[in-house]
């Protein structure tokens, strides 16, 4: 989601230090960000990648959305939640957030050394269509979008909901860019049938 998780970690932790079970959301995201950063060291050699300037189309909405989603932003703005989910509701939404984060890790482990934070072609890159990649073509983005939406609902402020929407839009943009890149790099004959068989982000969505 971001190359350097440290600023986001600070935002997350400073915003969710009030009461339990709200803290549980912070613990889930801090654990995910730290583990994701450590996992970035286990990746294959990159042969080609999308230019950094071109990637601003998805990086900017994701970055802005991440800042808006944190309760730190609503505290600075003096914003009140639109609703209160209650303890039971927070636990349910935290469970959905955790499920989304675990789904991203299932996909990342399954992808192995082909994983990259940016849009790249790794050495020996090929189409992976098993495990979570048999459900959706971009399961990491699917898991993140689901987790972000659950978190936005739990926080319940207008800025948090807007932040979740911006992150979802940025990940959708990234998925679209990645589709074009992989079709060119791996070949339409290899990637095209996979696209026609498996949904991009929503599992079990009928394909045309």
Short recap of the structure:
By secondary structure, the protein is mainly α. It has helices at about 5-15, 20-40, 55-70, 70-75, 85-110, 140-155, 160-185, 190-195; strands at about 45-50, 120.
How would you explain this protein's 3D organization?
With 208 residues, the protein is mainly α. It has one domain. Helices cover 63% and strands 3% of the residues. The chain contains 8 helices and 2 strands. The chain has a two-stranded antiparallel ribbon with strand order 1-2. The longest helix is centred in the C-terminal third of the chain and has 29 residues. The radius of gyration is 17 Å and the shape is elongated. It starts with 5 loop residues before the first helix and ends in an 11-residue tail after the last helix.
Secondary structure elements and their pairing?
Elements: H1 6-15, H2 22-39, E1 46-49, H3 56-69, H4 71-77, H5 86-111, E2 120-122, H6 139-155, H7 158-186, H8 188-197
Antiparallel strand pairs: 1-2
Helix pairs in contact: 1-2, 1-4, 2-5, 3-7, 5-6, 6-7, 7-8
Structure keywords:
disordered N terminus; two-stranded antiparallel sheet
- Number of H/I helices: 8
- For the terminal residues, how far apart are their CA atoms? 30 Å
Radius of gyration computed on alpha carbons: 17 Å
Order of helices and strands: HHEHHHEHHH
Number of strands: 2
- Multimeric state of these chains? single chain
Helix % is 55-70%
* Main beta-sheet annotation: 2 strands, antiparallel
Number of domains: 1
Q: Which spans of ≥5 residues are poorly predicted at pLDDT below 50?
A: 1-8, 11-17
């Amino acid at each position: 989601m971001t190359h350097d998780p440290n600023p986001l970690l600070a935002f997350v932790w400073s915003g969710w230090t009030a009461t339990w079970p709200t803290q549980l959301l912070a613990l889930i995201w801090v654990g995910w960000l730290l583990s994701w950063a450590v996992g970035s060291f286990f990746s294959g050699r990159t042969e080609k990648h999308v230019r950094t300037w071109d990637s601003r189309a998805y990086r900017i909405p994701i970055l802005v959305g991440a800042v808006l989603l944190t309760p730190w932003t609503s505290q600075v703005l003096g914003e009140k939640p639109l609703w209160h989910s209650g303890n039971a509701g927070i636990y349910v939404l935290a469970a959905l957030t955790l499920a989304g984060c675990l789904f991203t890790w299932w996909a990342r482990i399954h992808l192995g050394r082909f994983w990259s934070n940016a849009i790249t072609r790794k050495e020996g890159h090929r189409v992976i269509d098993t495990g979570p990649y048999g459900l959706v073509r971009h399961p990491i983005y699917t898991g993140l979008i689901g987790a972000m939406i659950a978190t936005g609902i739990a926080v319940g402020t207008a800025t948090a909901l807007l932040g979740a929407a911006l992150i979802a839009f940025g990940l959708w943009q990234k998925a679209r860019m990645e589709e074009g890149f992989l079709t060119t790099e791996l070949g339409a004959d290899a990637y095209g049938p996979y696209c026609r068989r498996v949904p991009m982000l929503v599992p079990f969505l009928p394909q045309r």
